Amino acid sequence: MFLCCMKTVKDAYHEFKGNLANIYSSPEADAITSLVLTNLTGLSKARLKAFTDTEFDTEQSNKLATILQELKTGKPVQYILGHTEFYGLNFFVNPSILIPRPETEELVEWILQTVTPSNNLNILDIGTGSGCIPIALKSQLVNSKLFAIDISPDALQTARRNAELNKADITFVEADALNLNDSIITAQQYGVIVSNPPYVTMVDKQQMHHNVTGFEPHTALFVPDENPLLFYIAIADFAAGHLIKDGYLFFEINESYGPETVNMLAAKGFTQIELRQDMAGKDRMIRAIWG
Fold this sequence. Notes:
Elements: H1 9-19, H2 26-41, H3 45-50, H4 58-71, H5 77-81, E1 83-86, E2 89-92, H6 102-114, E3 122-126, H7 132-140, E4 145-150, H8 153-165, E5 170-174, H9 183-186, E6 190-195, H10 202-205, H11 210-213, H12 230-242, E7 243-252, H13 258-267, E8 271-277, E9 283-290
Parallel strand pairs: 3-4, 3-6, 4-5, 6-7
Antiparallel strand pairs: 1-2, 7-9, 8-9
């Protein structure tokens, strides 16, 4: 297909759908096209659909062609645009961090349903990536103090930019979740510890789309097949020593290891452990209480 004929919104939807057919389903390609066009034109999705004869200027048409060429490689549209939305907030994204996902928004919502906004809590996010979890929490829990760690300096740089963008006061620390000994972090007791750690096994990898495995950071995704709960065990051990009495531990998890994660937490002394499904009906989140 030629990429030089996108003069109108209708042309763009047609070209994107045809060129992305081997990578995305028709609804996915349509959603990606709408996202690109709303960013390019500033028009709402509804207006784009209603006025498909809207014309692009030369610069916009050339930009569309460039974006489509990148999309054809499988590169996620969020990386191409350089930003995405999470919990109603705007976030910079790049290949140093995972793209924030809707199921993680569900985890944030569960925390906010659990915690009283007026409480002055210390909250720690382990493996923060873009910073989406602590920034979204801080936007609602203004009286709480948010801490976040990541092993990647590049991820932390992006997270700090996002905190500044969203005017969120977060203490970011470079640290390893598997050996968490930084004095700033270990000196605190927390009301909530939350983590969306690496949990994808090499077996899982075979089922994943290239736009994830080919572009998103592997250190934030993968764990050994023989030790899929590697990060959960380490974080649970840390939480057992750093949560206040009746403090909460929240995890986003691999859907294949829900019961195993629950059993691990119970064996370590956590109580009232709840396994919750995401909007797609997959085991995706756990909440547990310490003490």
